[in-house]
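Q: Given only this backbone (153 positions), what sequence would you predict?
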């Protein structure tokens, strides 16, 4: 099977989980990392012995990666992912894909127009607590819900 070259954008805490999964899979090679906080990018460079950038546009344009993993704040997904897709890169991002339906449709269209794949990780979908809550909501165990906030560590 092909070995896909990966560029990781954002080197904060969540990247550790994804990096471990990628290291355990021989079909992927982490080759570049990018973070606006240069110290974080350098730290990953030291840990992984990969090239680093602190500007996502330069990273996307200069690296010959196959897939871009975007682990930034949700409101930055559209800007970075669209740029990556328009530059012929596959994109993997965490949920939410974008913050509005209109933007989501544009993201999907950009992927299709450029013949690239767009993957969205729903990492908590099968979390035991989330499944319990979903079941409780579906079985109408609560009255009217106005807001839910959760931190899953």
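A: Predicted residues:
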């Amino acid at each position: 099977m092909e070995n896909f070259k990966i560029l990781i954008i954002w080197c904060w805490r969540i990247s550790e989980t994804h990096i471990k999964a990628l290291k355990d899979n021989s079909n992927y090679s982490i080759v570049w990392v990018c973070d606006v906080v240069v110290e974080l990018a350098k730290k990953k460079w030291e840990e992984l012995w990969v090239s680093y950038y602190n500007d996502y546009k330069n990273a996307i344009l200069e690296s010959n990666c196959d897939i871009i993993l975007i682990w930034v704040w949700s409101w930055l997904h559209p800007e970075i992912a669209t740029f990556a897709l328009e530059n012929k890169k596959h994109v993997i991002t965490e949920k939410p894909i974008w913050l509005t339906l209109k933007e989501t449709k544009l993201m999907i269209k950009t992927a299709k127009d450029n013949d690239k794949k767009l993957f969205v990780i729903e990492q908590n979908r099968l979390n035991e607590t989330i499944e319990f809550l979903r079941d409780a909501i579906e079985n109408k165990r609560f009255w009217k819900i106005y807001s839910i906030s959760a931190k899953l560590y």
